Amino acid sequence: MPYPTSPFNENFNYKLINSLLVELDYDNKISNEELMFTLKWLCSSPKMTTIRVNTLKNNVQNVLHILRQFLKETKMYIHHCLSNVVVIENTALCEELEKHEKEVIVDTECASAVLRGAHIYAPGVLGMVAGCQLNEDVSIYADIAKKCKKGFQKVYDSTSKIHIGNGKIKMQRHHLFSTKNIQYNGVAVEVSKTISGCPTINENILPAGDILLQNIPSILCVKTLNPKRGSVVIDLCASPGNKTTYIAELMENKGVIIAIDKTPKKVSQLQERCENFGANVKVYQADSTTIIIESQTSSRTVEDGPPFLPESFDNVLLDAPCSVLGKRPQLANRMSENEIKSYVPLQRKLFETATKLLKPGGTMVYSTCTITLAENEGIIAWALRTFNFIELLKPPLNLGEPGWIGTSLTEEQRNFVQRFGPNSKIDSVGFFFAYFRKKS
Ligand code: SAM
């Protein structure tokens, strides 16, 4: 299942992550074999790519038609449960690629995106041999050891570089590593082939905001929340807006959508994405742990922006900041134990905010793109113990696998939460979500 002979696995800190997946204070541990199976799965790429069509701007048949013109040999179809999603199947793994004389070195984040079908954007390039000409063929290598210096100009002599694909130069060294303070963000190398067999998809083949490369679990958690026309909805951790824009689509832009993010730069990205997608969203920069005004006498309305009165929203999405261990493929992971463990207290604070903001009878979704027990089932078990006014619901579409054992969740509750891993019905990223209602 993972790239069998590649050195990816050696650069993945199994030991640390293995010990952190099952926190020490949980009694029942999932088996070591199951953990290793999951960790190895994380080192491989999903076998399919999925594109969400923004039906506010285009339609799925038209998008399918255009994609078929660009990716002639590729098998693609509309997802059997999600009628706004095009599934593109990857071709077989290809570990023996032609090697070109000239090379480009990219960081592991960029390499992971390339293996999922992205071109190489300027910020991801670490090195490019001197003398590369526009449109020249190059081999693309990932710097797994994270030791290549930005601007490197020779052949990178390292045992931990991996040949991940080939492509054509679209930006030269003087653009990429300019000493002037200009930051280039465009495509630096157009990828033609990768070892993952994932076709490279240029989102620019359609106008900005018509389609989005988005993983099925991420689409499913918004579909489960199912915001309706005319509802009042808040997305507490919204940037870059992949889920917010889908909320707007499901609501057909009728109602109120508030999207919050803490980081100013991310708020700009969120604003831009909502504009491109034609999504009618009010975007605010705020810390979502402190956006509630307790004063009963306040006459504020949701439209005034934060802070908000308790019980103001019909639906709340909490796509929480997390350790991102569900991302695939993970080429290298050197996160510290403290960093991985730092998310639970923040997730709890955000969860508490979410429950307070929800109207009685309203629904919320908690989601993460990580696989640890503590950030997923651990949070759900804590929330059900702490807030007796919320109930866990069974999502209408069940494509995930049951939650892991090891917390106080009952078997029924483990079957209600949606964990996406190597045993799910779809081969996607590692993801988790749970669906709740506030009792009336
Ligand atoms: N929902 C987004 C999407 O699907 O495009 C992805 C959200 S990402 C998992 C988590 C986001 O939470 C980050 O953009 C981060 O800046 C933001 N964040 C972290 N702490 C926050 C806080 N206290 N309040 C609001 N946003 C926060």
Quick synopsis:
This protein has 440 residues and is α/β, with parallel strands linked by helices. The protein has helices spanning 14-21, 32-42, 60-70, 108-115, 173-176, 216-225, 242-250, 264-276, 337-341, 343-357, 377-386, 411-416; strands at 48-53, 76-78, 85-89, 103-106, 120-121, 125-128, 137-143, 161-169, 187-194, 211-213, 231-235, 255-261, 282-285, 313-319, 358-368, 390-393, 418-420, 431-438. Helices cover 25% and strands 23% of the residues.
Structure report:
- With 440 residues, this protein is α/β, with parallel strands linked by helices.
- It folds into two domains: 103-194, PUA domain (Archaeosine Trna-guanine Transglycosylase, Chain: A, domain 4), CATH 2.30.130.10; 216-438, Rossmann fold (3-Layer(aba) Sandwich), CATH 3.40.50.
- It has helices at 14-21, 32-42, 60-70, 108-115, 173-176, 216-225, 242-250, 264-276, 337-341, 343-357, 377-386, 411-416; strands spanning 48-53, 76-78, 85-89, 103-106, 120-121, 125-128, 137-143, 161-169, 187-194, 211-213, 231-235, 255-261, 282-285, 313-319, 358-368, 390-393, 418-420, 431-438.
- The strands form three sheets. Strands 11, 12, 13, 14, 15, 16, 17 and 18 form an eight-stranded mixed β-sheet that branches.
- Helix 1 crosses helix 2.
- The longest helix has 15 residues, at 343-357.
- The radius of gyration is 22 Å and the shape is globular.
- The termini are far apart.
- Residues 1-8 have low confidence and may be disordered.
- S-adenosylmethionine binds next to helix 7 and strand 12.
